[in-house]
Amino acid sequence: MAYIFGPRWFYGIDYIFDLVSVIVGLLICYFSYRTYKYTSQKKYFYFSASFFLVALAFIAKMLATIPVYSKELKVETIGLVTVTSQIINKVTWINQFGVSIARFVMLSAFLILLLVALKINDKKIIALFVYFLIISTTLVGASYIVFHITLLIMLGILFLNYRNNYLKVKSFNAKMVMYSFFVLAISQVFFIFEGLVTHFYVIGESIQLLGYLILLFAIIKMMLKK
Amino acid sequence: MSMRRTKIEIINDILGAIQQKGGKIKPTHLLYKSNLSYKKMLEYVNELITKEMVKEDAFKGKKVYTITDKGISYIQEFKKIKEFSDSFGL
């Protein structure tokens, strides 16, 4: 079974949405890495790495779904039954592998972000988190629901953390960061139910795009600060 | 009650103190301006020397710390770094 997301009319449009997330991820990665070079504080390096992985996860997802989407087009135009069935088998394998990698990288990215945000340094606790991460992506790798529930919990905790931070610093950008993680968490609720209603994928992608756009707005404001 | 300074704030204060003194400062003046213990000040200054933001010079036969171009650019970047750090609670 191949992982195909959302209704047919949305094929390709989600690439544009995901591309925005890639740009935001790389921008934060760059800014945090530059801060690391100035301060030599490892937390900025890990923060940078986490957003690099976010970008990488989106790229992996895009690459994994390209063959499926193009396969759909080939079936329509050529219509050779025997040939298409061979393509489907190959494409399905690439798709499943690619999406599994994307999910693992995405959860790793937000796990690192959680460890940095919550200032968790205890190696035993980190090892436990890594164990759960591997279990949730390998043993139940086929279940998109487990992936989205895990991500929802992670984003929910990050939202609460950034809410506390906003209440402490009371700055506009801290408020934007808090909102962005709230919106990103909400998007996961729709992704959880995308199997029931196909259009929930479209809603989830749109909300997720909004979340990353808020984050983009905040990071641009930080970079332009004088 | 004053808040405890973060590392990036202390670095900014040290570099700012050197810049305010025309780019060169005596260790004793820096000790007074940075509001740190002598040991801590040396730790920070040595780190800044390693990062090439500050260099050790001699001026009229006495040791002075001189801010470099990299140090000046840190001061310019500080507000962005601080805003970034505060916004994400880092």
- Considering residues with a beta carbon less than 8 A from a beta carbon on another chain, report the largest interface and each chain's count: A-B, 30 and 18 residues
* Range of helix content of chain A: over 70%
Anisotropy-based shape of chain A: globular
Largest sheet features of chain B: 3 strands, antiparallel
Strand content of chain B: 15-25%
Low-confidence stretches of chain B: none
Secondary-structure content class of chain A:
mainly alpha
Tally of helical segments of chain A: 7
Report how far the terminal alpha carbons of chain B are from each other. Answer: 22 Å
Helix fraction of chain B?
A: 55-70%
Task: Please provide a brief summary of the model.
By secondary structure, chain A is an all-alpha fold.
Plain-language structure description:
The complex is a heterodimer of chains A (226) and B (90). Chain A has helices at residues 13-39, 42-77, 81-117, 123-138, 144-169, 172-192, 199-223. By secondary structure, chain A is an all-alpha fold. The longest helix of chain A is centred in the middle third of the chain and has 37 residues, at 81-117. Chain A is globular and about 50 Å long. In chain B, strands 1-3-2 form a 3-stranded antiparallel β-sheet. The relative contact order of chain B is 0.18. With 90 residues, chain B is an alpha+beta fold. At the A-B interface, helix 1, helix 2, helix 5, helix 6 and helix 7 of A face helix 1 and helix 4 of B.
Which terms summarize this structure?
heterodimer; A: 226 residues; mainly alpha; 7 helices; B: 90 residues; alpha+beta; 4 helices; 3 strands; globular
Write the layout of secondary structure elements.
The complex is a heterodimer of chains A (226) and B (90).
Chain A: H1 13-39, H2 42-77, H3 81-117, H4 123-138, H5 144-169, H6 172-192, H7 199-223
Helix pairs in contact in A: 1-2, 1-7, 2-3, 3-4, 3-5, 5-6, 6-7
Chain B: H1 7-20, E1 24-25, H2 27-34, H3 38-50, E2 54-59, E3 62-67, H4 69-87
Antiparallel strand pairs in B: 1-3, 2-3
